[in-house]
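ok new one. same drill as before - structure tokens go in, u give me an amino acid for every spot. 136 of them this time. try not to just spam alanines like last time pls lmao
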């Protein structure tokens, strides 16, 4: 098994701030400020988590041209990419790579309404049609 390359639950909160930002980049101070009241950890811990995200290749940083103590953090992996990787890892680790078993388990354990089942059926049909169009 390779090393983890997606955000942990706590790191995910940091990524939500970066992904949801209207700015292209954020400084550590801006991220820390945005997390006040959402994440009860010290500024130092947030900086450690940012370094972990850098090591995982989820974000990158550049040093501020005017102040070398300030780093600007940028997204490398989109939320969708991280979700897809987490889902694949979850299915591999907990369901032996069997996607059908994973989906069946979630459906079985969920208390879906008739409306939600119908929605699910329509989604499956749409996916089947899409696959036909791709020649699968």
């Amino acid at each position: 098994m390779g090393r983890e390359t997606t955000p942990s639950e706590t790191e995910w909160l940091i990524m939500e701030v970066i992904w949801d930002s209207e700015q292209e980049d954020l400084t550590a101070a801006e991220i820390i400020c945005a997390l006040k009241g959402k994440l009860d950890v010290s500024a130092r811990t947030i900086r450690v988590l940012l370094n972990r995200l850098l090591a995982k290749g989820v974000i990158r940083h550049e040093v501020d041209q005017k102040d070398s103590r300030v780093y600007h953090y940028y997204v490398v992996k989109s939320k969708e990419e991280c979700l897809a990787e987490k889902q694949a890892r979850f299915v591999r680790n907990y369901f032996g790579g069997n996607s059908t078993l994973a989906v069946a388990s979630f459906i079985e354990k969920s208390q879906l309404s008739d409306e939600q089942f119908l929605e699910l059926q329509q989604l499956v049909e749409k996916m089947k049609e899409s696959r036909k169009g791709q020649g699968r």
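The two ends are 30 Å apart (CA to CA). and btw The mean pLDDT is 92.
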